[in-house]
Amino acid sequence: MATNVSAVYIHVVDDVISKVREEFVNYGAGESVLNELQALWEMKMMQCGAISDVERSSLRKNAAPITPVHDLNVPYEGPAEEYETPTAEMLFPPTPLQTPIQTPLPGTADTAMYNIPTGASDYAPSPISDIRNSIDLKAGRPSPYMQPPSPWMSQRPLGVDVNVAYVEGREEAGDSSHQSMTQDFFVNSTGKRKRDDYASRLNSGGYVPQQDGSGDVTVEFSLPQNAVTQGQKSSIRDGQGTANFKFYFDKDAKPTPVIPQHDGIHDDYDDIFQFQGVSSEDYNTPGDHVEIRAATPSVGTPKPGKNEAAEDDEPSLNEDDDDDELDDLDQEEDEPNTQHLVLALFDKVTRTKSRWKCTLKDGIMHLNNRDILFNKATGEFEF
Amino acid sequence: MRLGFRPTSFSLKYRDQRSSIGMCLTETLDEMVSTGTLSPELAYQVLVQFDKSMTEALETQVKSKVSVKGHLHTYRFCDNVWTFILQDAVFKSEDRLEQVKRVKIVACDSKLLTQ
């Protein structure tokens, strides 16, 4: 079948070329233009796999003078997997211009090579060639000035780490200044049930290490009866994120009725929640805010603020709910390479209830990156 | 860069230019016109001739029959052109079976196609 398609296509190409020859002559366009047309056309078809290499190999002679033009297009035409059978001659035509300029080996870098394009003399190398040479030097041989590379390389990650540590340090400072924040952090990291387990065991040991391998956190509890709750987070112990968290936790001091929100969105909500006066501005439109504050100045403000915050979160979570599979497929249809398409003439289309029947003729099917021609086709579809 | 002209017949517009051979020819003509090698008029003549040759080849050179089955997701009849979008379609010819998850069939009225 594939051979059949190739044969038909080649037949069509020959037919078109022979029949427009007269037109070309009448328009004053030369035979060479016609040959170029044919060569380009066939080259493109070969690249997209519409016709096979073997059958048009005889025709390739015509294409020879213009191959450079096609070859410039090779990377842009058709999917890469379709390039299975191009001849070496086609890919690397024996044209001097096509020869790629080879990157010189580091040790053998020749300054003259780089002077050619700029036209600078040997005695006064152009800035460009200078730069190129210096680049080549740096890349290839380790010059005395390149000794620092290793410190330089290792310095960069360090710099990043410093930044991270700095940010965390700031958070720590903020945390330790608020008691309730410390409790929130604790509740979130271990969970309520676990905390109870630990609490009972801690009466004897007082130290429960939790080291499961990923982001190991050592939690230390001591339960002074009358101690004021204070949180203290030790600094990062090593580079792998293992950290010690020490909580001096007063069991009798129940957490303040602040629900921590550490779900990734508006994590700092707790902070804001406490400073209600300022916080609600972030989540309310100015108009709403004024109204709410006017109605319930002190106590009622947080609640509407929280509700609205929740509402604000909703759209971001559900915003691509309407992207169903078919929409994606519609988008896919725009890409020519993934598209399956049948183009034909119809003789008759009928429908009985949800059953459709149609007869098509003289069609071209492009399925799975392949052309299939048909003289007649019958279709039976269930709607 | 696209040529300024629009194909006049259904076959030009819907069938041949969307096939591999038709798209390759259109691209070739576009390139040659944009580089000044070919005049737009002559390029159009080539397309018209291609349409004739392709239609003739499909009638005379191709003898294969194909049957299509599938779930009809969308149907549309507009300007004498039927468009079907099938899901999980199976194409059977004498020597081959092709399965595609989704395929679009565009068919022009054979009676309207004047040559």
TrEMBL record, chain A:
Name of this chain's protein: Transcription factor IIA large subunit
Location(s), subcellular: Nucleus
Pfam families, sorted: TFIIA
CDD domains xrefs: TFIIA_alpha_beta_like
Gene Ontology biological-process entries: transcription initiation at RNA polymerase II promoter
Record keywords: Nucleus, Transcription
Keyword Nucleus annotated: yes
One cellular component (GO) term of this entry: transcription factor TFIIA complex
SMART domains: TFIIA (SM01371)
Acidic residues compositional bias, start-end: 310-336
InterPro entries: TFIIA_asu/bsu (IPR004855), TFIIA_b-brl (IPR009088)
Membership in a protein family: Belongs to the TFIIA subunit 1 family.
Domain of life: Eukaryota
Organism: Musa troglodytarum (fe'i banana)
Location of the region described as Disordered in the Swiss-Prot/TrEMBL record: 192-214, 295-338
From TrEMBL, chain B:
PANTHER family named in the record: TRANSCRIPTION INITIATION FACTOR IIA SUBUNIT 2
Positions of the Transcription initiation factor IIA gamma subunit C-terminal domain: 69-110
Any single biological process term in GO: transcription initiation at RNA polymerase II promoter
Pfam families from the UniProt entry: TFIIA_gamma_C (PF02751), TFIIA_gamma_N (PF02268)
Species for this entry: Musa troglodytarum (fe'i banana)
Family matches, as InterPro entries: TFIIA_a-hlx, TFIIA_b-brl, TFIIA_gsu, TFIIA_gsu_C, TFIIA_gsu_N
Cell compartments where the protein resides: Nucleus
Keywords, in A-Z order: Initiation factor, Nucleus, Protein biosynthesis, Transcription, Transcription regulation
Domain Transcription initiation factor IIA gamma subunit N-terminal residue range list: 18-58
Family: Belongs to the TFIIA subunit 2 family.
Top-level taxonomic group: Eukaryota
Protein name: Transcription initiation factor IIA subunit 2
Molecular-function annotations in GO: translation initiation factor activity
CDD domains xref list: TFIIA_gamma_C (cd10014), TFIIA_gamma_N (cd10145)
One Gene Ontology CC term in the entry: transcription factor TFIIA complex
Subunit structure as annotated in this protein's UniProt entry: TFIIA is a heterodimer of the large unprocessed subunit 1 and a small subunit gamma. It was originally believed to be a heterotrimer of an alpha, a beta and a gamma subunit.
Function summary: TFIIA is a component of the transcription machinery of RNA polymerase II and plays an important role in transcriptional activation. TFIIA in a complex with TBP mediates transcriptional activity. Protein involved in the resistance to X.oryzae.
